[in-house]
Structure formats: structure tokens, C-alpha cells
Amino acid sequence: MIPRCLVRYVMILPLLAAATLFAQEEPPNLNVPTKTLGGQQFWGDVAHFHGWRIQQNALTEHFRLIDGDDVRHAWGTQEQCQAKLDEIKREKKLPQMSGDGVLLVHGITRSSKSMAGYRGPLEKAGLQVFPFDYPSTRVDLDASAEYLHQVIESLDGIERIHIVAHSMGGVVARAYRAKHQDERLNRLVLVGSPQNGAEMADLARDKANLVFKTIFGPAGQQLITDQAGFLAKLPKPDVEFAVIAGGHAPNGYNPLIPGDDDGIVSVASTRLTGAADYMYLDSMHLALNRNAAAHAAAVRFLQTGKLREEGEPQPIPREEK
Description:
The chain has 321 residues and is α/β, with parallel strands linked by helices. It contains eleven helices and eleven strands.
């Protein structure tokens, strides 16, 4: 039997198949402004600038330039899209970026829109927000990390960079940091992230292997709780980071997961050793991104290094087993 929490993903399987057939949207020679879905599962961001994004299609490997309303303005090679963006910069007299920036990194099967709740609080705090999209179900975690690397490299003028990452997005952030050392990266917030593996990935792989592989792709298969697997080999972040976990004490939302959990990820799996602070919220997995307490805690940690307004931090010691 497929767990109930996977039903929504099974239902989107036909949509994924249909989207694959129409991934090119239209022939390259019809290079006219066109409304798009913004990212979803076939596009990965490679550059950001004041709300403009250059993306690459994971299937066809061509590029497009879209604005903050998800309207496509150019199509073709990366050089062609960059040339169009440079033209727009001149026409609109867009200034160079500066200050502190925050990348929002979504989880598997999601898009940057799932992280929209963080945007208002972060911008109110004076931070520039960069909603990052990557084809989470089409490529493996290393490839996803390379998309993130390209975007970070593109943030010319941004003096300090933070990351707020939900679910698998936290693993992508760690995979990025394992290979790249941009000195501007300052703080990282991991929200409901299966840093020690996802028991649901184990179960789905064993009980519904074909469906699991089709929906979650190569990255989903890397999330298993394997002591010799991808996650176990990732180094701990070498920047200051915090963990926000969801659950429903004492037994969680999902009876298929041992201990407390948020319906998808166990609390134990979120507890990455070395965290400067830790916060537990009574919340389901996807609801964490709509949780005002999580938003406020993330902003506070990026500003002060603490998740709570009052009280002492609750670090996760590196020696914890």
C-alpha cells in the first residue's frame, strides 16, 4: 500500500508526463514575451538580477530569461539570454545590486513559490530575497547544487549571502557548500530538512519503487537513510547554521515513521549536529513554510544568530549521536 502522504505525488504523475512532452513550450524561433509557470520541475536558475532570472531547461538544455512575473523575454543560448538582460539593464537603468541577500531553496517536487511566506518578513528586515528554482525531480543532488552555485556566482554586488532552505533544499545547500567556498555565505537555516535521511524515502523505495523513481527522480533516491549513502558523506556546513523542525509530540503525524515527525521527515533526522540553534514547532512538513513562527525565527537567526527573541540558543552539539 502506498502511504497516504504520497497520494498527492501519485496524482501528479500524469501531469509530469504531460509536462515532459511540452517542456519546450514553443519553437525557439518564436522568441516573443510569453507567460510561463516560472520554474516548476524542468527549469533550473543559473543567474539572478533584481527579479530577473536566466534559467536552463533540464531536458533540452536551452535557456530562457524571465522577469519577476514569470514572463519570458528571451530564449536560446545562455549568451543570448545574458545579452538581452544586459539590454534590459541599460533600458531600465537598473542599478548594481548591493547589501545582504537571502536565497530561498525549496524542497523536492516544489518550486520557489512554496517559499513565498518568507519573502515579506525578510524584505521587511532589509534583506534582498532571491527565490531559487531548480528541477528537483529531474536531476541528482550534485546537479541541483551546481544550479545553486551558478546563481550565487551571478549575485554581483551582494556583499553577504544567507540561505533559508526547506526539506531537500537543505541538502542541496549542504551539497553546494561541500564543493564551493564563496566567502560571502554567512548563515544557513534548515527547515524540516532530512539531513540524516528520510524514512519515507526508504519506505517508498521498498514498497513502490517504480512510482517513487518516476515522481521523485534521482535526488529522491539519494535521500534514503543509508550510513554509506550520499547524505552520510556530506560534510557539516562550515558556516553558522540553525535547524527548525516540525512535529507533533510524542508520536508525530505519520505512524509509519518511528518517533516524532512532521508527516514526511522525522524530528531526529532534522537534528544535524553542529547547529548553533534549534527550534521545534508543532507543524506538518509543508505547513512549516506557512508558519509565521518559522518565518520570524529564520529572520531573527539571519540577523542575530539566534532563533528566539528571548532565552538562550539550543545548539546541537557535534558529539550528539
